[in-house]
Amino acid sequence: MSTKQVPPLTPPVPYNGRGAEQRTGVRTAVALVAFLLFAVVFPLEVRGASAVLFSNSDFLIRYAVALYASVKLALLLWQGDIRPVAGVFWIFVYTGMGLAPLAQLATGRSTALAIQVGDRELTMASLLTLLGCVCFDVAYHLKLRRRGGASPQLRFRTLRSMDVLRIFSVAAVVAALVYIIQVGGLSVFFLSRQETSQALDEISPDSGQALRAIISAAGSVGCLTALIFYLHVWRTRDVALAAVDGLLVAALAVMNIVVNNPVSNSRYWTLAVVFGLLLPLIRGRKGMFNAAVAGGVIASIVIFPLSDITRRAAGTGAPLSSESVWITIATKDYDQFTMFANTLAYTADHGLSWGMQALGPVLFWVPRVIWPDKPLDTGVEVGQWMNSINVNLSAPLWAEAWINFGLPGLILVFAALGLLARRLDSGFRAEILSKGSVGYLGISIFAGYLFILLRGSLLQSMGRLMILVLSVLILTAVTNRRERLQP
C-alpha cells in the first residue's frame, strides 16, 4: 500500500501592519502635497501673473474645473489601487480644461481661436465642462447590481497562444513596411510631422482621410501592440522564448522606432505610446503609478507646450517663446476649451446635428469618393464657420457630444465614459493581475489613447482606435475560468 508524501507546511508570513501603515502614510503625504500644489499653488501663481482685469466670478467659475480635477487627482494618489484610465482623464481635465483656461483669463492671452466667442460662451463652456466631469465621476463610482443580488463575475483575458503572437507580429511588421513604402521611405519619418503628413496625403488625395487613417493605423498600432505583448511575455517568463521570437522582437523594435517616433507623430500619439509602454512596466507598483500621474501633470504644464519643435518643416516653425509658463500654455496648444466655446457658438447659429455629425467617426472607413456628403471632421466644420485659415483644430469630447445632441448628449457621453473607465480600470486590480491576465496591456494602450479621444476630433482618432481594439481581440481570449471577485 503506497503512501502519499505530504510536503512540509510553509509557516505563514506574519502580517506586517506597520509596513502597511507606513505606505498609507506616504500616500497620504503625497496626495496632500499634490492637492496643495495643483489646487492652491498653481492657481495662485496664475492669478499673480494677471495682466488684465477680470471678475472674481469668472475666475472662480474656471477655477472650479481645476479644483475638481485637483481633488480627483489627489484621491487617485491616495488610494491603494491603480486606475490608469481615470488618471489620464483627470490629468487632461486639469491642464487642458482647467488650468489653461485660467491662464488665458488671467494673462489676457489666448490662442487665436478665442476671438469668435464672447464671455457668455466661455462661461457656458466652463460650466458644461464641469457638468461632464460630474457625470463621468458619478458613473465611474456607480455600483450596478445584477439580478438576484449576485456579485459581479469578472473574467480576464489571457494570451491566446505564442503562435498567434508570432503570426500577428509578422503581419504587424509587414504592415509597417507597407506604411513606410507608401509614405516614401525611412527618411520621411525623421523630417517633421508636416512633411510626413503631406507625404501620406499624396497616397490617395481623392479618398480624404479615410485611407490615410487606415494605412497609418495599421502600420503603427499593430507593431506597438505586438511589442508590448512580447515585453509582457519576457517579463513574466510564462513561456521560453525561441530564436524566432528574438528576431521578431528586434524587428518590432526597429519598426516602432521608425513609425512611432516623436519626430513625425503628434505629441498626443507619443503620449499614447509612452503610456502603453510604461503602464505594463508599472503593473501593480502603486508608487511608480503615483510618480507617473504627478509627473504627467507637471509635464503637461512645462514640457508638452514646448515639445512641438518638430511640427513644421525646418525653418518654418515658430520660435520658442521665452515668456512665462502661464503665457505659454495660454497661447500655444491648449485650444480645447476655446474650441468647445466656439462649438457652442456654432450650434447657436446652425443648430444641433442630431447625430449626423457622429456618422463621420462611426463610418470613418468609407471614402469620400463613395460618400461625397460624409460629415467633415468636427474641428474642420467649426473652423470653416470661423473662417479660420488653419482648420486642423481640436474638437474635445465635450464639443463632439454637444454638437450632436446638446445637453442630453453631453450627459450620456460622459456617463458612458465613466462606466467604461471603471470597467477598464478594474483590469489593474491585484486579483486580476495575479491570475496571468494580459488584458491590462490593451488597457494600458487605451489609457494613453484617451488623451487623443478627449482632445478630439473623433473622426481623426477612429482609425487607430479600431486597429487597437482588433489587435487586442486577436491576441487575447477570455479565460474559461470565471472568478468571483468582490468589488
How would you sum up this structure, described in words?
With 487 residues, this protein is mainly α. It has a domain at 25-144 and 158-335 and 436-451 and 464-487. 64% of the residues lie in helices and 2% in strands. It is built from 18 helices and four strands. The protein has helices at residues 17-48, 56-78, 84-107, 119-140, 162-183, 193-201, 209-236, 243-259, 267-282, 286-302, 325-331, 336-350, 359-362, 378-385, 397-425, 430-433, 439-455, 458-475; strands at 153-154, 157-159, 476-478, 483-484. Strands 1-4 form a two-stranded antiparallel sheet. Helix 5 runs antiparallel to helix 7 (209-236). It is globular, with a radius of gyration of 24 Å. The protein starts with 16 loop residues before the first helix and ends with a strand. Mean pLDDT is 82; it is low at 1-16, 148-152, 313-318 and 482-487.
Features:
487 residues; two-stranded antiparallel sheet; disordered C terminus
Number of strands: 4
Secondary structure: helix percent:
55-70%
Kindly report the average pLDDT value: 82
- State the end-to-end distance: 48 Å
Strand content: under 5%
- Catalogue the unreliable spans: 1-16, 148-152, 313-318, 482-487
Q: Biggest β-sheet: count, sense, barrel?
A: 2 strands, antiparallel
The SSE order reads HHHHEEHHHHHHHHHHHHHHEE
Overall outline: globular
- What is the spatial order of strands in the main beta sheet? 1-4
Rg measurement, Å:
24 Å
Number of DSSP helices?
18
Structural class: mainly alpha
